[in-house]
Specification:
Layout: H1 3-25, H2 28-55, H3 65-98, H4 101-105, H5 111-116, H6 118-143, H7 153-180, H8 184-203, H9 216-221, H10 226-229, H11 238-262
Helix pairs in contact: 1-6, 2-3, 2-6, 3-6, 3-7, 3-8, 6-7, 7-8, 7-11
Length: 265
């Protein structure tokens, strides 16, 4: 491939990714609810906490500090994860659900490329929302902390990495699984059931022993500092957690790409 062909290919990929971004942006209801789940929930959490503390400091501690940060991290993990699932499935299965995949495939563009551009588009949207949400999380933990109890910068940085990784992995899983399956609603149901219920139950199933290290949620929880998240439910090394997450991402991407390449147009 010469330089001109290379530039043409890159330009095509950029335009296709931009088109995927535009598709997501035009889903106004999805974008609005995602902002509410990511950012709005954090604002409400710290706002109510600050009001309660101001009204009755004897019974309600500061809204921020380590405890507030831990609760806010849990909130962004759960509600932000729900938004990431909705965005990821919209990116991965939106064309099939809308019945336009046949038209896209008939243009002659690589089916793998059609799948591949969905990932950066979805990650760009959830990434902006996750950064915005964590900016509120970190600010609230510091501003509303009691005297001398503001979380140190190193802890906040670790929490930021944990949030970015959790949301990123959830987004990729949603894109891959929704591309693999023909139903967005089933994909959303399966992922929410896994993230909010089944994986949590398996995390606490000590009879499974080291098999619990293969759980995606156990791996993402490992990235949260102990001072914020408490003792790890599934103890593991950081490098083990990284390998587990890479494995989940690889399986989701390969499955989604395979199905997109072989789906009947």
């Amino acid at each position: 491939m010469n330089g001109t062909e290379s530039r043409t290919t890159i330009g095509t990929i950029v335009r296709m990714t931009a088109a995927e971004l535009l598709k997501l942006y035009r889903r106004r209801a999805l974008m609005a609810w995602s902002v509410v789940l990511f950012v709005g929930a954090q604002l409400v959490f710290y706002g109510l906490g600050a009001i309660q503390h101001a009204a009755d400091p004897a019974h309600h501690g500061p809204a921020g500090g380590p405890r507030g940060l831990a609760n806010a991290m849990m909130l962004v993990g759960y509600l932000g994860g729900v938004a990431a699932v909705m965005i990821g499935t919209a990116a991965g299965g939106g064309d099939t659900a809308a019945g336009v995949f046949r038209d896209l495939a008939s243009t002659g563009r690589s089916r793998i490329a059609l799948f591949a551009v969905r990932l950066p588009a979805a990650l760009a949207v959830t990434g902006v929302l996750a950064v915005s949400a964590f900016a509120v999380t970190a600010t609230g933990a510091v501003v509303f902390a009691g005297a001398g109890s503001a979380p140190p910068a190193a802890v906040l940085a670790q929490c930021g990495v944990a949030v970015a990784t959790t949301i990123g992995v959830t987004t990729v899983l949603a894109v891959g699984l929704s591309s693999l399956m023909s139903s967005r609603s089933i994909t959303i149901g399966l992922l929410l059931c896994w993230n909010l219920a089944l994986a949590r139950v398996l995390e606490h199933a000590t009879s499974l022993g080291s098999l619990r290290e293969a759980l995606s949620l156990g791996a993402t929880d490992r990235l949260v500092p102990v001072s914020v998240g408490g003792a790890y439910v599934v103890p593991m090394q950081v490098w083990t957690a990284a390998l587990v997450l890479l494995g989940w991402v690889a399986v989701a991407v390969l499955a989604g790409a395979w199905q997109t390449a072989h789906r009947d147009a």
